[in-house]
Design a protein that fits this description.
This protein is an alpha/beta fold and 723 residues long. It contains 21 helices and 24 strands. The strands form four sheets. The protein has a 13-stranded parallel β-sheet, with helices on both faces. α20 links the parallel β17 and β18. The longest helix has 24 residues. One of its GO terms (molecular function) is ADP binding. Pfam families: LRR_14, NB-ARC. Keywords: ATP-binding, Leucine-rich repeat, Nucleotide-binding, Plant defense, Repeat.
Length: 723
C-alpha cells in the first residue's frame, strides 16, 4: 500500500524540489503573455483604407476601454465599492486561519464572486504568502474532471511546466498525506456547480489551500464560506455611473431621480448595473424614461433566486435591434466557459442573418460595448508560431443563461433554437418525446460525450440551417438525422477531448447539398470517395487541430471536383500535413488560402500559380517550409502574403515584383538576408512587417508610400490552458 500510494507522491515531491527554481521563468512567461494582450495586431489583413481599418480601430477602442476599466477597478474606485471588506475577510481565511484547508466564496450569478477571487490572487500579500504558487482553474457545469485533476496534481508536485504527464499518472484517490512541499500554495476552483465534481478536485495536502468559488454553498467540503454581499445604494450608483457616464457620480446634466430609480431596480447586483448602465450610455432622455418604466413593471430581483436575475437581464435585450438581439440569443448555442472562435460566429451569422462579415463584426462590437459579451484575444495567436492575431468571444454565465432562457420559451417543436445547455450523456428526453413531429429550429446545438449509432433517434429538421456539435470523445458517430436537414448551411464540429476523435458516418456529407460553411476541430478526417456528390455550394472549410490522414491527397480525391465553389480554405495546427495536395490549385474560385502552424509542411505544389482568384495567402508558422515556389509570382490578384515565423524560409521568389496588387507582407521571424531586385516593382505595396535586420533593406527601396514596421517579439503559453 505504501508503494502504491504515498511513495509515488514522495517521488513527485522530489521532482518539485528540483524544479522549484524555475518558477521565476514561468512568471516571466506570464508577464510576456500580458504584454501580448497590448500588442494585438490587425484583424484579417488589416489593410489601410479597406474594411480592416475600422475593425482595427474598433479592437483598439475595446482594448483602451478594457484597460481603463481594469485600472479604475484595480485602485481606489473598486476599493470603494465594498470589495475591500470582502478581500479582507477572504484573505484572513486563506492566510491567517491555518486550520481552514478549503475556503468558499458564494453568491448569486453576477454578484462579483470571480472578480473577488481574481483580486485575492492579485493581492501582493497573498502572492507573497504563497510564493506566487497560485493555480486558478475554471470548473464549469460540464468539466473535464480528469484533465483538471491532472493539472492540480502537476501543480502540487511542481511539474506544472511539464505537458507529458498523462491521466494515468494521476492518483485515483485524493491526496491526503501530510508531506512537506516547501512553499505553501493555493488552488482556486472557480464556477463550481456540482458537489461530486468538487469532491474529486479537493487534494488534501499539507500547506495547500483550496478556494472554491460557486453560486452554491458546500458545507460538507468548505471549512468556512464568505457570502458575497451585494452593493449598497451609494456603491451601486458609483458602479452604474461608471458604466453609463464614465464617472463615479451622477453628472449634473443627468436626471438624478431617474438614475436612482434605475439603480434601485438593479438591486445592487454588479452585473446588472454594469450591463444596463452600458445599454443606456449616450442614449436620449426618453430612452432612459422608457427603460425605467420597463424595469418598474418587472418583479423585484430576489437575492436567492437566479431566475429573477434573468428577468432583469432580459431588459438589456429589449432595446437591441431585432438582428442584434437574434445574434445575442445565438450565443447560447455554445458551451459555457469556452472561447467561441470569431470565425465560427461570423460564418454562422453571415449564413442565417443575411449580413456581410463586416456587419457581423460590428454586431459583436455593439454587444461587447453593451457588456453582453467579451471580446478577448486568443493567446494562441500570440505564440511565436502564429500568423495573425485572432479574436475570440467569451460570455458571462448569467448572460449565457439568459440567452438560453429566452430561446427556450414555448413548445419545444416550435423553438427557433434547439439547445442543450450543458453536456449530457444522451439527447434530452423532451426531444425524444416530441420526435414524432417536425422541429422548426433554425439552429440546433448538441453537447454530448461519445455517441454511437444506437444513441441517436430519428428527428426531422426541415428548417434547420445551422448544426453545432459540441462533444468530448475519442469516437463520435455523426447523427443520422443530418439527412433530414435539407436546408443546412453551416456545420460546426468541436471536440473538447484531449485527443482527436474518430468520426463515424462521414459519408453523410454527401447529402449536404446546400452546405456553405464547414468547421471541424480536433477530429480525424475521414476519406471522401470519388463517388461523393460534389458540394457545389460549400464556400468555407476550416480544419483546426485535425488529423488529415492523407484524406486530401490527389490519389484519393480531386478536391476541385468535390468543392468546385470553395472560396476560403483554412488549415491550422494539422501536424500530419506534409504536402499540400496539387488538386487544390485547380479550385479557380479560391480567394483565401491559410495554412498555419503546420510544422511538418515541407513544400507547396508547383502549380500554385493557377489560383488566379487568390487574394490572401497565409503560410505562417510552417518551420519546415524552406522555399516558395516561383509560381507564387503568378498570383496576379494576391493582396496579402503572410510568411511570418517560417524560420527556415530563406528568400522571396526572384520575380516577386510581378505581384502588382500586393498590398501587405508579414515576414516577421523569417531568415531572409536579402530582397530580390524585383521587390522595387511592388507598386501597390503599402505595409511590411519584418525583423530589424530586414527593415533597412525595405527602406532602401525608397518607396515613399511604404510603411515598414519592426515586429515586436511577444511570447506566451496561456493557450496551453485552453482545453
Amino acid at each position: 500500500m505504501f508503494i502504491n500510494g504515498p511513495l509515488q507522491l514522495h517521488l513527485l515531491a522530489d521532482v518539485h524540489h528540483m524544479r522549484f527554481e524555475t518558477a521565476e521563468r514561468f512568471d516571466k512567461l506570464e508577464w510576456s503573455a500580458k504584454k501580448l494582450e497590448e500588442s494585438i495586431g490587425n484583424f484579417k489583413t488589416g489593410l489601410g483604407g479597406g474594411g480592416g481599418g475600422w475593425v482595427e480601430e474598433a479592437v483598439k477602442k475595446l482594448e483602451e476601454e478594457e484597460m481603463n476599466w481594469e485600472g479604475s477597478f484595480g485602485n481606489n474606485f473598486y476599493s470603494g465599492l465594498g470589495i475591500e471588506e470582502g478581500k479582507r475577510k477572504v484573505k484572513e481565511m486563506v492566510i491567517e486561519w491555518e486550520n481552514l484547508n478549503v475556503v468558499g466564496i458564494c453568491g448569486i450569478g453576477g454578484s462579483g464572486k470571480t472578480t473577488l477571487a481574481n483580486e485575492i490572487c492579485r493581492d501582493d500579500q497573498v502572492k507573497c504568502h504563497f510564493g506566487n504558487r497560485i493555480l486558478f482553474l475554471t470548473v464549469s457545469q460540464s468539466p473535464n474532471v480528469e484533465n483538471l485533476r491532472a493539472k492540480i496534481c502537476r501543480f502540487i508536485t511542481g511539474n506544472d511546466g511539464i505537458d507529458g504527464m498523462g491521466y494515468d499518472l494521476v492518483p485515483k484517490w485524493n491526496l491526503q498525506f501530510e508531506w512537506g512541499i516547501g512553499t505553501p500554495m493555493m488552488i482556486v476552483l472557480d464556477d463550481v456547480w456540482s458537489l461530486p465534481v468538487l469532491e474529486q478536485l479537493i487534494f488534501k495536502v499539507a500547506g495547500c489551500k483550496t478556494l472554491v468559488v460557486s453560486r452554491f454553498k458546500f458545507p460538507n467540503v468548505c471549512n468556512a464560506t464568505y457570502d458575497v454581499e451585494l452593493l449598497r445604494r451609494d456603491e451601486a450608483i458609483s458602479l452604474f455611473c461608471h458604466s453609463a457616464f464614465g464617472k463615479t457620480s451622477i453628472p449634473p446634466a443627468a436626471d438624478s431621480n431617474l438614475v436612482k430609480q434605475i439603480v434601485d431596480e438593479c438591486k445592487g447586483l454588479p452585473l446588472a448595473l454594469k450591463v444596463i448602465g452600458a445599454l443606456l450610455r449616450d442614449q436620449p432622455e426618453m430612452y432612459w424614461v422608457s427603460a425605467g418604466q420597463r424595469l418598474s413593471r418587472g418583479e423585484p430581483i430576489c437575492e436567492s433566486h437566479e431566475s429573477k436575475l434573468l428577468d432583469r437581464m432580459a431588459i438589456s435585450t429589449q432595446f437591441l435591434s431585432k438582428n442584434v438581439r437574434e445574434c445575442f440569443l445565438d450565443l447560447g448555442s455554445f458551451p459555457e466557459d469556452k472561447k467561441i472562435p470569431l470565425d465560427v460566429l461570423i460564418n454562422m451569422w453571415v449564413e442565417i442573418h443575411d449580413v456581410d462579415p463586416e456587419e457581423a463584426f460590428a454586431i459583436l462590437v455593439e454587444l461587447s460595448n453593451k457588456n453582453l459579451l467579451t471580446l478577448v484575444k486568443d493567446a494562441r495567436a500570440g505564440d511565436m508560431y502564429s500568423s495573425y492575431y485572432e479574436i475570440c468571444i467569451m460570455q458571462h454565465d448569467v448572460l449565457r443563461d439568459l440567452a438560453i432562457h429566452l430561446s427556450s420559451c414555448g413548445d419545444v417543436n416550435d423553438r427557433k433554437r434547439l439547445l442543450m445547455p450543458r453536456r449530457e450523456a444522451q439527447l434530452p428526453k423532451e426531444w425524444e418525446r416530441n420526435a414524432d413531429r417536425p422541429f422548426d429550429a433554425q439552429i440546433v446545438s448538441i453537447h454530448t460525450g461519445e455517441m454511437k449509432e444506437m444513441d441517436w433517434f430519428r428527428m426531422d429538421f426541415p428548417k434547420a440551417e445551422v448544426l453545432i456539435l459540441n462533444f468530448s470523445a475519442n469516437d463520435f458517430f455523426l447523427p443520422p438525422f443530418i439527412d433530414d436537414m435539407p436546408k443546412l448551411r453551416a456545420l460546426v464540429m468541436i471536440n473538447y477531448s484531449p485527443s482527436n476523435a474518430t468520426i463515424g458516418n462521414f459519408s453523410i456529407f454527401s447529402s449536404l447539398a446546400n452546405l456553405r460553411s464547414l468547421w471541424l476541430e480536433k477530429v480525424s478526417i475521414g476519406r471522401l470517395s470519388e463517388s461523393t456528390v460534389p458540394l457545389k455550394n460549400l464556400r468555407k472549410i476550416s480544419l483546426i487541430l485535425c488529423k488529415i490522414n492523407k484524406s486530401l491527397d490527389e490519389s484519393v480525391i480531386d478536391l476541385s471536383q468535390i468543392f468546385p465553389s470553395l472560396s476560403e480554405l483554412t488549415i491550422d495546427h494539422c501536424e500530419d500535413l506534409i504536402h499540400l495536395p496539387p488538386s487544390i490549385c485547380r479550385i479557380q474560385t479560391l480567394k483565401s488560402l491559410s495554412i498555419t502552424n503546420c510544422h511538418n509542411l515541407e513544400k507547396l505544389p508547383p502549380n500554385l500559380g493557377n489560383l488566379k482568384s487568390l487574394q490572401i495567402l497565409r503560410l505562417s508558422a510552417c518551420p519546415t517550409l524552406k522555399m516558395l515556389p516561383p509560381c507564387v509570382c503568378d498570383l496576379v490578384w494576391l493582396k496579402f502574403l503572410d510568411i511570418s515565423h517560417c524560420i527556415n524560409l530563406k528568400g522571396l521568389p526572384e520575380w516577386i515584383g510581378k505581384l502588382s496588387r500586393l498590398e501587405k507582407i508579414d515576414m516577421r521571424e523569417c531568415s531572409l538576408m536579402k530582397l530580390p531586385y524585383s521587390a522595387a516593382s511592388l507598386e501597390s505595396l503599402r505595409k511590411v512587417i519584418c525583423e530589424e535586420d530586414v527593415f533597412w533593406l525595405w527602406k532602401e527601396l525608397k518607396n515613399v508610400n511604404l510603411d515598414v514596421q519592426v515586429a515586436e517579439k511577444c511570447y506566451g503559453v496561456d493557450w496551453l490552458d485552453d482545453d
